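Hi Prof. W.,

I finally got the DUF4044 domain-containing protein prediction working! I wasn't sure whether to trim anything, so I left the full sequence exactly as given:
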Amino acid sequence: MSTKSVKDNKSKKTDLDKKEYKNPVETKWGKITIWILLFGMIGIVIISAVWVIVQAIIGN
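And this is what came out:
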């Protein structure tokens, strides 16, 4: 009879397994992205409000 050797897959670790998870808010690029999104969303609301007021005054 022949015996097969079983490889131990538990000892294998990839680069992703070795890296520790970081919250995106705690990284520099995460903060930049969040601030850009925040200002973008607030900006579009303000621009839309101004646009509506101007259109109401001009009266199409």
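Helices lie at 15-18, 28-58. Does that look reasonable to you?

Thanks,
D.
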